[in-house]
Design a protein that fits this description.
Elements lengths: L2 H23 L2 H8 L3 H7 L3 H25 L4 H17 L5 H5 L7 H26 L3 H25 L5 H16 L12
Helix pairs in contact: 1-2, 1-4, 4-5, 4-7, 5-8, 5-9, 7-8, 8-9
């Protein structure tokens, strides 16, 4: 198997093991077995368990950051932008892979490299949202970033709650409910009446 394909296969196997067991309980033996390779093959690609975890975490982080970037670029209508951004978190959390657990529920945040990667998700997503808020409202950068961090926090925490709750609302309804709440708040910050969305 070509090196790139083997690496992708190992990452998928590792994701299944880390999501199911958490970092501390997962063993390289388990990952190698899940991938159907020997431990030496696994170590050829990843020198240790932390290296493997960080590679997965980086990939998972990029997935959610890219989803938020696409949501923000999907429309110029800010009400729809809020809905698309909130839905990006719900879609990410609802993924069958469970990769969100590495980013939002890591049991290894005491490790500096892991904490930095986890924080990067919130920081980059908030920064992208803050740029839109500042441009539309004229608020100072620090105020826009505070509002953006609040919106990002609302989206990811509510998405995780919705998934854990396991009943009641379907994904689309839950995301719409939360985006409605978010829009009623952020929609109150127009630069002028001309900028207010319906």
């Amino acid at each position: 198997m070509p090196r790139r394909e083997r690496r992708a296969q190992l990452l998928e196997s590792a994701l299944e093991v880390f999501v199911a067991q958490g970092y501390h309980a997962a063993a390289m033996d388990d990952i190698a077995e899940r991938a159907g390779v020997s431990k030496p093959v696994l170590y050829q690609h990843f020198p240790g368990k932390l290296d493997l975890y960080l590679a997965l975490l980086e990939r998972s982080s990029e997935t959610v950051i890219d989803a938020v970037r696409r949501a923000l670029a999907s429309t110029d209508d800010n009400k729809l932008r809020v809905a698309a951004t909130v839905d990006a978190f719900y879609e990410y959390v609802a993924s069958d892979s469970g990769a969100f657990r590495l980013v939002f529920e890591s049991d290894l945040t005491s490790e500096d490299a892991v904490r930095a990667q986890v924080d990067r998700v919130t920081t980059e997503c908030s920064t992208m949202v803050a740029e839109v808020i500042a441009e539309d409202t004229g608020l100072p950068a620090h105020a826009a970033l505070l509002l953006a961090s609040s919106l990002v926090g609302m989206a990811q925490v509510s998405a995780r709650f919705w998934l854990a709750d396991g009943n009641g609302l379907d994904r689309a309804s839950a995301a719409a409910l939360v985006s409605g709440l978010a829009w009623r708040g952020i929609g109150g910050y127009p630069k002028s009446d001309d900028h207010r969305e319906a």
